[in-house]
Amino acid sequence: MPAAGQPLYRGLDRAQLELAYNNTRAVPGFPAILADFQARSARLYWEHPCLRDGAYGPGPRQRFDWFGCGRPDAPVFIFIHGGYWQATTKEDFAFIARGPLEQGFDVVLAEYTLAPEASMSRIVGDIGRLLDHLAASEGEFGLRGRRVVLSGHSAGGHLTALFRSHPALTHAMPISALVDLEPISLCWLNDKLQLTPAEIAAFSPLRQIGRGVPTLVTVGNDELPELLRHSRDYAVAGVQAGEQVSYLPLPGCHHFSVLDDLARPQGIQLRSLLALMDAGPR
């Protein structure tokens, strides 16, 4: 075990890493924020019919919700929730669907198995299985012939970045993404994840930048410095690799209010995403 106070990562010791990734401590009133998210999500489910808990595998959390906007062949916005791979549900964040729906997207809310029940390998496998399932589906609940955006917040942003090369996608928008698992493995977040060296290497998007779809990397400008660094470093690395990756810090937003912006049809993220989609490939 490292001695107390010994630097572990980029000059940060264990205690500093504990704080560097503690978003709920950094944002005052998080329980009230989550309760508001849940209330708004329940209202959306009540107001908007959807396919609820469609199965993409046999596991109890291998499920997705599909909200239709009412337009034939609408683009599809797939959203993966956060929670550091070990907490929350798609139902907690359904409220974000309102913005994309009003902009003419069909919306998919993805669920996946959480740690400690699932390893990172299994969590990543769940998202791959979901995308493969949707890509192979026919008719209303399929992706064939459509523009498809994969997005996700925090841990969901990590999973988004990992899958930006999936053949079913046309665009990606990781939000407040965690793109290097090494510091995650060195703090309290690893108590349930139990990341292996092989998983850190294979599933850190910052280390795995390859050919992928045009990508908009967003993050709240008032987030913790480490969260800002992850997004900024990933965008820079993407550009250096010759990829179509852009960086969008959201003024006045913290780790959770970035989702309020996403839920607004005229929010900065959706307007920027639509501009990217209209621009086409470079």
UniProtKB/TrEMBL annotation:
Highest taxon listed in the record's lineage: Bacteria
Pfam family, one: BD-FAE
Gene3D superfamilies named among the record's database cross-references: alpha/beta hydrolase (3.40.50.1820)
InterPro entries documented for this protein: AB_hydrolase_fold, BD-FAE-like_dom, GDXG_lipolytic_enzyme
Location of the BD-FAE-like domain: 73-162
Record carries keyword Mitochondrion: no
GO MF: hydrolase activity
Keywords: Hydrolase
Name of the protein: Alpha/beta hydrolase
